[in-house]
Structure formats: C-alpha cells, structure tokens
Known about the structure:
This protein is α+β, with helices and mostly antiparallel strands. Helices cover 30% and strands 28% of the residues. It has a single domain, classed as Beta-Lactamase. Strands 1, 2, 3, 4, 5 and 6 form a six-stranded antiparallel β-sheet that branches. Residues 13-151 form the MEKHLA domain.
Amino acid sequence: MEPIRTGIGATNEHALRVIDSYRHWTGRRLVEEGEAGTAADRLFQAPLYILSHGMEEDPVLNFGSRLALELWEMDWQTFIRMPSRLTAEPMERDAREAFMRAVREQGFVSDYTGVRISGSGRRFMIAEATVWNVLDEAGIRCGQAAMFSRYLDLG
C-alpha cells in the first residue's frame, strides 16, 4: 500500500524543481519524462534513493522516494519531519555539514560516499551519490537534494 503523502515534498511543483534542478546542474535526466503519472509520482516511484530538504536553519527533510523510505526504515510522515542532519551518525555530522556547504557553493557534487543511519539505528554507506542545490523557477536556491543507486549495509 502506498503511503499517504502530504506536504511540500508531495507536490508536483516540488518534484519538478528537484527534477529540473538535477538536469540544470548535471545535464542528465533524473526520471523519465514520458512515463505515466505525475512528476511527484514518478519521483517517488523512481528506482533510485532520492531525498531532499528545505532551507530551514536546521534543514528538515521534505521528500523521500519509496526506496529512500525503505532504506531509512521510516514512513512518509516521520521522514518529512526529520532534520536531515539526523540521517548521519553524530560523529559523521561535521563531515556531512562541510560537504553540504561545498554543494551550496558549487551547485552540485557527484561521487559522494558517506555513512548514514536508519530509523532503527542500522548503519549503511551510500555510494556514488550526487547532491545538488534545488532551484525554484527564478533560479533561487530553495533546498538541496541527493540521489544514489547503491549502498553497503554496515550492520
């Protein structure tokens, strides 16, 4: 059963910003445009781990694809209320913040690897992730997103 998705991350507007920003920075497609369904549904059902957060002082996740929710072992409502820094273990958070600062300054970074932690405390390493600034229709940064297709379970 598909989770009930509400909030900014469930909107087509947000999905299009994530999709269009990925193409802007990388020149590549994140999801196939000709597939059936809304942009929000295509992004949610993509065969990738995709997540995004907003611009709060302590940024809060606002989107997770179906695979991301499964990997982090959370339902939609729990996931979109979590500060994104909590996706990493406490000892990894300084390195994560330095990396996120580099993304803010450069627009995007590819081939990122880092240790993350699920809702149950299970550790895993994401591999070859791309992280990018999400831009609104005026080209103003309104968040950041990440995508990866592989991870290593660390137990």
